[in-house]
UniProtKB/TrEMBL annotation:
The chain crosses the membrane at residues 16-37. Pfam families: Flp_Fap. This is Flp family type IVb pilin. It comes from Tsuneonella aeria. The keyword Transmembrane helix applies. Keywords: Membrane, Transmembrane, Transmembrane helix.
Length: 56
């Protein structure tokens, strides 16, 4: 019975899970931001390539 009481009071596992969830959310936000930036860069390079091809 004492073991179960100790498990209920122990919060280290919950803290580790919370940190894991925070890290996962940060990773998802970074991936989304990088995808958006990648799309913008791709569009910019296509425009530059088109303009350089016109100049020849």
């Amino acid at each position: 019975m004492q073991f179960i009481k100790n498990l209920v009071r122990d919060e280290e596992g919950a803290t580790a899970i919370e940190y894991g969830l925070i890290a996962a959310l940060i990773a998802i936000a970074a991936i989304v931001a990088m995808q958006g930036l990648g799309n913008q860069l791709s569009t910019t390079f296509k425009k530059v390539s088109t303009e350089m091809a016109k100049g020849n």
